[in-house]
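This section describes the prediction task in plain terms. A model, or a person checking by hand, is given the sequence of a single protein chain and must write out its three-dimensional structure as a string of tokens. No templates, partner chains or ligands are provided. The sample shown here is typical of the held-out split.
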Amino acid sequence: MSEIDQLRGEVLAAVTAASDVPALENVRVDALGKKGRVTGLMKNLGTMSPEDRKTFGQQLNLLKTEIEDAITARRATLDSAALDAKLATEKMDVTLPVRPELKGSLHPISQTMDEMAAIFGAMGFTIAEGPDVEDDFHNFTALNFPPGHPAREMHDTFFLPTAPDGNRYLLRTHTSPVQIRTMLSEKPPIRVIIPGRTYRCDYDMTHTPMFHQIEGLVIDTETNMTHLKGCLQEFVRSFFGVDDLTIRFRPSFFPFTEPSAEMDIGCSRQGGELKIGNYGDWLEILGCGMVHPNVLKSCGLDPEVYQGFAFGMGVERVAMLKYGIPDLRTFFESDLRWLKHYGFAALDVPSLTGGLNR
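The expected answer:
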């Protein structure tokens, strides 16, 4: 047996016998490294005649290729076996109950919107939804914001590039466009609430670029301001858990309602602490009013026949008031410690008989 044949047999046997990747690497270095056995034989080429050097060199190159191929194949086998062993030791029984420390929590925003839906649902309201990306008509024009009207500057709007069809799209600045979509698609009587995300270019302790609103809309032939007052009074008393909570309305301006008002609830600020109740002070909480006749006309409704009211409030704002959350920005910072403190049990579904007044 020649020296090359003997070396081939010994190295290939060592490759097959390697039990793990480190052992295989030792075989490679011993055979093909700078001081390896194959490298050592190549050093003999300089002492050979041209014919012998050619023949011996070809045999060494063939041996080197065989060894490299054998090492590559063995490494693949060892890697696959190592992966199988790892997977076998890392099995998890998904039928086991969740560990208590991994129990999830419901975000205060979700909880608050569920609470609002429970209260208004008991009054006969249903939920309406619409797209976050709106066109100018639904977000402004149909809501009595004429082109160039200063009221359009009331909101810092995220405008999108003008579409090929010439329409200007934007991230909705309020959930009011859903009122328009509802009146265009449904016949009165209408009684809906509209929870959802809204967007404005603003960011500080009391403003964020994305926040949540909930609006209400009632359209029929008889609704008036007294119905609006009764609806909102019942809501704030149920939501804050104060049976005799006082409210007051102050004249205001919104392009889509006439008359328009802002509603205050009773509170106290003594000692730097805000308390909701009949303590002699007032806190503004929402805007409201009777739906403007121009809005009804934009939706194909005759203002001589139909009328109604609308209201809207920020979900984060009322959640902060109810649960004592001082900074609006913490709602969106994904801090698990904050959620653990303010969060709610995932199965604690709000209802009129429980889960509303914590």
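For orientation: The two ends are 90 Å apart (CA to CA).
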